[in-house]
Amino acid sequence: MKAKLGTLLIMASDRPYRAKPSLRAPADDEPEATRITSLSSLESELRARRQQHAYVVVLQGSNVGEMFKIEGPETVIGRAMTVQVRLNDDGISRRHCRVLQIGGQVIIEDLGSANGTLVNGEMVQHQALNDGDKIRLGATTMLKFTYQDKLDETFQQQMYDAALRDGLTRTYNKKFFLDRLETEFSYSKRHRTMLSLVMFDVDHFKRINDTYGHLAGDAVLVLLARTAQATVRQEDVLARYGGEEFAIICRGTPLLNAGVFAERLRMAVEQTSFEYGGVRLPVNISVGVTALPEVNVNSPVELIAHCDEALYEAKRSGRNRVCMRGI
């Protein structure tokens, strides 16, 4: 006996329209039945698949643009050498605060800092963080808490490098160097700590370009930067100041120690084999060194001028040597 099929009657004008009976099987029997879900559910699933992690991004301060991944149950932020996120800005304590990951939440906790920890403008002792929260530490540092995936992290790092690094040598660029030197200079003056500046350039670099070509000159600068980077401490700032000239900020380093470091750098360059197109290139550097408080200056520009004078003295006295100013 055939089952009786219902019909749907839709009135159009004064003539009825009889729809054809539906012969579709119930949804449970359809292997390709359409599923309807909310946009928020899709976004949640997408975020889960992207494996997002917690980060803090420096919005303001000497490390502006840098991104730090929050890993493990505890991440300490401060000026000390031993912390996971090291920020050198004025007003930040050695162990300023810490970020904890507990039960799926991310919590920030002040560690008795001198100037406190503020989240979205409010002083806090400990507080759960939400995506987009702004964290102020000290007088000049602003962080943003955010969740990012690996693609976001890579993009952020590329943007950071493009803004702050020299395109050829991958050292910091002149703008970053000047900004950082101003911060370090102010800190050194205020707290009466030591600060050394080292500047060096390639002897007879124009002769290398004229004899072997500009591509050879570029190759020299790349290897020179790599050699210098292997010599400096992690907390030092190596930058390309311009052309074949480089500068290094040495925080907390007295003048004589900076002079010893400069001589070690000069020797490392002298012992490095610079080659291009199978030809050995003659490469040496002259180095100038100065420091606070040995020189009495009132601005970073004056400190650079003293270091430049020491560098030119090294060139005037025969090149391939270190000269110090301030003793």
TrEMBL record:
It is an enzyme of class 2 (transferase). SMART domains: FHA (SM00240), GGDEF (SM00267). It holds the Pfam family FHA. GO terms for molecular function: diguanylate cyclase activity. GO terms for cellular component: plasma membrane. Residues 75-124 form the FHA domain. Its EC number is 2.7.7.65. It comes from Labilithrix luteola. Residues 193-327 form the GGDEF domain. This is diguanylate cyclase.
